[in-house]
Structure formats: structure tokens, C-alpha cells
Amino acid sequence: MNTVFALWKRGLKAFVRNKTGLVFSLIFPFFFVYVFGAIFKNDFIENPIAYMLSGVIITTVFESALNLASSTVDDMVSGFMKEVLVSPAKRVYVALGQLLSAATVSTLQGILILVIGLFIGIKFTDWKTPFLVLVSMIFIGIVFSGVGLFLATKVRNGQTFQIVKTAVTMPLTFLSGAYIPISMLPGTLKFVAYFNPMTYATAFFRMIVLEKTGLPISDLIKEGLVVEINGFAITPFMTFAIILIIGLVFLLLSTISFVKTDFSRLNRSATDANALWG
Amino acid sequence: MNPIIQVKNFTKKYGDFVAVNNISFDVEEGSVFAFLGPNGAGKSTTINTLCTIFEKTSGTLLIDGKDVSRQKGEVRSAIGVVFQDSTLDAKMTIEENLKMHCVFYNIPNREVEERISFVLNLVDLTGERKKMVSALSGGMKRRVEIARGLIHYPKVLFLDEPTTGLDPQTRAHIWEYIMKLQKERNITIFLTTHYMEEAEICNKIAIMDGGEIVAHDTPYALKKKYTKDKAYINTKNEEALELLLSEHHLDYTKKDGYYKVEAEHLDRLLEVLSVHKEHITNIEIKKGTFNDVFLEITGKKIREEA
């Protein structure tokens, strides 16, 4: 258990120490709020800034959690994972520590934007909402940390990984409804969006932030707060179940894959032992 | 003497390629053991398997009586590993790196402070404790890694080319630490190196080539067996010298005006020559080096020094 805590602390320290990264992680969300909030001022959305902010918050949580992939790949390239490999530390605990630290960091980033958001457009009327928002962020943070860790264990080349990561996360965020409502997407892209886990996370989170959980399903559809596939509405409960299942699957896959991964293999061929020892 | 590392009939194959072919050797507790060999000889595969990173194909590998493939946890607790490439966490301080290591190795909290002071003192880094690893020089990083490899008091310390890429002064220091360790804590040190003069300081040397151990002995015995001392002689009277050498059955080759005589013991040559000093204008004696041993055994030069 000490291993889990130590790695969690390590992740937090790295987050706090990276001041430049922190500033930039705040600049982009508000840039998006400004740009897209101005573009999508339409009649369906009563509070465009709050609508955009909720999308931006969850996108930040998502991207920050997926960043676990990058930091784990960095740990492999820098050799730190090799040190873990030859230590008696249980790999499951290492995986758990990494997941929890990524989930915590992503939640913290989400909270930072949320706090600023409270001054520029988000309003909570129910005392329960902040708790629900927090729990959702942690939940979604853990789910996508699992996805991130899974990706990291499949990486064979640290340099191409960064490009692949951007190529994957960019479309996923843009096709999630966070910036552009799904209903405004053309048919093919809409179809892609239905397979995007982020779509469900966004709809779910937005519904909670905008305090629309009590609304009947027809109103939720109208405001774009639930996903509707060919007239079939995915209820909030089903949305939650979908995220939960995706989360469980990836947490399981990533942990198994992490335990089995040969970290010394990165960027080097497995048959060439000399590459490992020089 | 008690063998701390026991390798018996160890074979490792990658598909059809045999990287290590049925090798056996022991390392005595408290000794400094050097593993030499050209690249691709199989020494890396052997060390990686001993460190529980690779799986063996067949054979038995024991460290402190524990099987490296079946008792991984115990073996990992019993060994310290310093890789050639840094495995430190550059974004953390020296102290944080050491603390993290203590967590991985289940060191009781109350002992952590004392152990950190002890190992940092050992490698002269006490004052650097709060520095970020990214700000350290190559030599300092290597010292931190050695300190870290020792903090859980391993029985065996694996050092993969501990001095490669370091300047001569730092290299000498690193060796000082290694020798101090062996003496004070009776730690067994298993290392690879490309510097022949470093191999000579070790108690035992194993040379690998083509997946097999081609020589395994003390540096002295290897030198005695595989090298000859050489004498280069200059003379005013070539005829007289040639006659003298052949009279005493000493083979010679003539090159650039020098007579080169090779012999296992030059004592006899010197005796002969001292009687006929008047023939000799200059004599230079070269002792056999470990490079010669290596060349003789593997037929290859050790990797060009970086």
C-alpha cells in the first residue's frame, strides 16, 4: 500500500512543480470557451457559457487523465520504470498508484477551471451539485486514466507516441459534444461520436453541472444533454452504466497489461539484449 | 567459501537463436566478479536473467540460494542493480529518489533516514541531498544510483559498466566506493566493464563469447595463461645478437631495426642478455596486458572506448 501512496504523491508533486504546464493547461480551456461560446449561441442552449464551460472542464479532466499515458511513457524512456521492474514492489500497486495520481491530478485541474467558471457563468443552486460534480470528475478521471495507462503499455516507440496521442485525443474531444453539439455534426461524424466514450462522459457531466438531472428525457434531448441514436435516447442511467463499463474494462485491461509489460523493451528490440545493457 | 550466485546449465534462446549456450559458473560471496565479452556475447542476457528481467529457457540460476525465476520477490530484495543508463527520476530530488526506493523495497520508516545518510555519506553526496537529479552531472548521477542500489542492503550489487562515459577522476572515485563497499559490507559485486584495467582489480573474471564462457579465472591466472611478456631489443651488432638468441633457443622477429622476443618468463632472456651487455644499445620490456588476454581468447578487440 505504501507503494500506491508514494506514487500518488510523486504524481502530485510533479503536477505542482510543473508551473508552466499548469498555466497552459488553464489557457486553452478558456480560449475554447471564448471561441466556441461565441460561435454556438443558439436557441436550444439557455446558458452558452455554462454549457461550454462544463464541456471544457470535462475535456480537461479527460485529457489530463489520458496524459498518464505520456507520463508513463516518459517513465519508461527515462528508465524509472526499469527501477520499478527490478524492485520487489508489486506491479499491481504501481499501476494503482499511477492511476490514482493521474485521476487526482485531472480532478484538480477540473476543479481549477470550475472555480474560475463559477465567476464567469456557472451557477449552482443546489448544495448537492458541487459534490456530484466532484464525484463525477473523480469517476471520469479514473476511467480515462485506465485508458491512458492501457495505451502506455502498448507503446513501442516514445517519439511516435506523442504524435499518435494527439491524433487520437483531438478527434475524440472534438467529436464528444464538448465543444460542438453532437446534433450539429454531419451524419458520418455523428456515427463516429456514438462510439466515442467521451461523448457519454460529456453528456453525463454537463447534465450534472447544469443541474438538469431532474428534467424529463424529452427536455434533455432537446438541450443535447443525452445522446440520442436514431431516435433512441440513452438515459442518464444508461450513460452512467456505459462509462462504468468502459472504465471497468480499461482498468482491468490496463492493470493486466501493466503487470505483463516488459518496460525495458521500449524503443529497443526484445531480442537484442545488448540494447538494454549497452 | 560460500557461492552467492550459482548458475548451472543456463541456456537462453530467442526463437532459433541461442544467446546463451549451457553455461555454468559460481560467484563467491564477498568477491568482485567481472563479466567481460564482446557485444552480442550473451553477457547482457545472463545479467538480465540474473536480475529477474528476462526468463531463462532452461537451467538453474540461484542468488543466495533463491531461484531467480520462481522466487522473484526474494531475489529482487537481495539484489541491487545499477543500470548503465540512468534509471533515476530526474524530476525529483536525490532524497526523494532514495525515499521512493525505500518504499519499493519495504524499508521500515524508522530506518529510512539513517540509511539515506549512510549511503549518501558513502558516495560523498551528503551536501547534495536536496538537489534535483536533473541538475546533477553524469558522475554524480552514477553515484546516486550506486547509493540507491545499496540502500536496501543487498547481498549482491549488479553494476553494468559503472564507469562508462565518466572522466578518469570520477572513474577512480567510483572504484574507490566499490572497493570500500566490498571491504566494509562484504557485498558481492557483479559487474561488466569495457575497461580492461578495471577488470584486473577484480577477484574473478569470466569472459563470454558466442554464448559461452570461454575463460573463468583470477586475473593473474588468465594473464599467465594467455599472455606473454615481450622484449624489444636494439643492437649495434646484429649478427652477434642473432647468434646469441638462437643459441639459447629464443625465437625472435625482426622489425624496424628492433628484435622482438616473446617469452612467458623474461628472466631467462635477461640473464642471457646481461652476460653480453656489449651487444645491446636499448631494451624495452612490455608486460602482457589484459587486452592481450581478451584478444587471445575472443579474437576480438573489446569495444572501442567511448
UniProtKB/TrEMBL annotation, chain A:
InterPro entries: ABC2_TM, ABC2_TM_bact-type, ABC_2_transport, Nod_factor_ABC_transporter. GO terms for molecular function: ABC-type transporter activity. Pfam families: ABC2_membrane. Residues 16-261 form the ABC transmembrane type-2 domain. Signal peptide: none annotated. The chain crosses the membrane at residues 21-40, 52-71, 92-119, 131-151, 237-259. It comes from the Bacteria. Keywords: Cell membrane, Membrane, Transmembrane, Transmembrane helix, Transport. It is found in: Cell membrane; Membrane. PROSITE patterns: ABC_TM2. It is a multi-pass membrane protein. One of its GO terms (cellular component) is ATP-binding cassette (ABC) transporter complex. Its main location: membrane. Belongs to the ABC-2 integral membrane protein family. This is Transport permease protein. It comes from Lacrimispora algidixylanolytica.
Automatic annotation (TrEMBL), chain B:
Keywords: ATP-binding, Nucleotide-binding. PROSITE patterns: ABC_TRANSPORTER_1, ABC_TRANSPORTER_2. InterPro entries: AAA+_ATPase, ABC_transporter-like_ATP-bd, ABC_transporter-like_CS, P-loop_NTPase. Residues 5-235 form the ABC transporter domain. One of its GO terms (molecular function) is ATP binding. SMART domains: AAA. It comes from the Bacteria. It holds the Pfam family ABC_tran. This is ABC transporter. It comes from Lacrimispora algidixylanolytica.
